[in-house]
Amino acid sequence: MQVNPLISFCNGKQEGFNYFFDTYYKSIYFFACKYVKDSAAAEDIAENSFIKLWEKREQMGSESGLRGYLYKTVYHGCLRWIENEKRKEKVYRVYKESMDVDESGHVENMIKAETLRRVKEAMEELPSECRKVFMKLFVEGKSVVEAAAELNVAVSTVKNQKARGIKLLRMRLTSLIVFSLWFLVSSFLTYSFLDRCLF
């Protein structure tokens, strides 16, 4: 005697599952394709609908109800997929805009970073006493009086070393920063040009 496919399915039999999978898979796959426009995603959604159907098999009272459940599950699966793709696209768009909408911002950030690096290098090359004063005043944020007390020197000494350091830094940094700015800007413009041409 031939067993009713629905009864077989509801009882957890593999034959019942195979019957409905073979009967409806192609139709719900094409149904999903109409929404997601992506064959791999449509396959996943269609297959997932059968997994959910299997989990609910004991609640299926008729083949028409089973069929309706499949299409409903696929439809909601497509909506979730579309919503997820929109979120990913939004995240990508925000990321891309933050990275390359304002190219002048890139140049500005590069200039700031390079300038700070050059200043730190120049400070390291100051004479020992001068460097100590600069570290207290400009790195640690001490006042002239506080720096003098901590270094155990006169306030006038701190002021003199500060003036000397500023003069030495100005002489050293002027040429270095001008060269750095030229190099950074030209490098960035070259990169932007190649990025547009190649990508």
* Tally of separate domains: 2
Counted beta strands: 0
Please summarize the sheet with the most strands: none
Give the proportion of residues in helices.
over 70%
User: In CATH, what is the homologous superfamily of the largest domain?
Assistant: Winged helix-like DNA-binding domain superfamily/Winged helix DNA-binding domain
Show unreliable segments: 183-199
* Large-scale geometry: rod-shaped
Give the class-level CATH name of the largest domain. Mainly Alpha
Please compute the radius of gyration using only Cα atoms: 36 Å
CATH architecture of the largest domain: Orthogonal Bundle
Mean pLDDT across residues: 77
Query: What name is given to the CATH topology of the largest domain?
Result: Arc Repressor Mutant, subunit A
- Measured by DSSP, the beta-strand proportion falls in under 5%
The DSSP helix count reads 8
User: What class would the helix/strand composition place it in?
Assistant: mainly alpha
Q: Would you give an account of this structure?
A:
- The protein has 199 residues and is an all-alpha fold.
- The protein has two domains: 94 residues, RNA polymerase sigma factor, region 2, helix turn helix motif (Rna Polymerase Sigma Factor, Chain: A); 96 residues, Arc Repressor Mutant, subunit A (Orthogonal Bundle), CATH 1.10.10.
- The protein contains eight helices and no strands.
- Helix 5 runs antiparallel to helix 8 and helix 6 packs across helix 8.
Summarize the structure.
This protein is an all-alpha fold and 199 residues long. The chain has eight helices and no strands.
